[in-house]
Amino acid sequence: MKPEKLVVIVAGEASADHHGAGLVEMFKQLRPETRFCGIGGKNLERAGVHILF
Questions:
Q1: Of 14, 17, 19, 51, which has the most beta carbons under 10 Å away?
Q2: Does the residue 1 lie in any domain?
Q3: What is the mean pLDDT of residues 20-45?
Q4: Is the pLDDT of residue 50 over 90?
Q5: How many Å apart are CA 29 and CA 16, to the nearest integer?
Q6: How many domains, in total, are found in the chain?
């Protein structure tokens, strides 16, 4: 088992939220043990990102 990683992502506007969510979903397929947190909107939240603000 690989060690857990934390990735922080920041999306400051709607298209970044949309594209960032796609990036998170693809990354989770490659590294399912990875956790995500950051600043963004509903798309990132639906992708599994813990929204800080």
A1: 17
A2: no
A3: 97
A4: yes
A5: 20
A6: 1
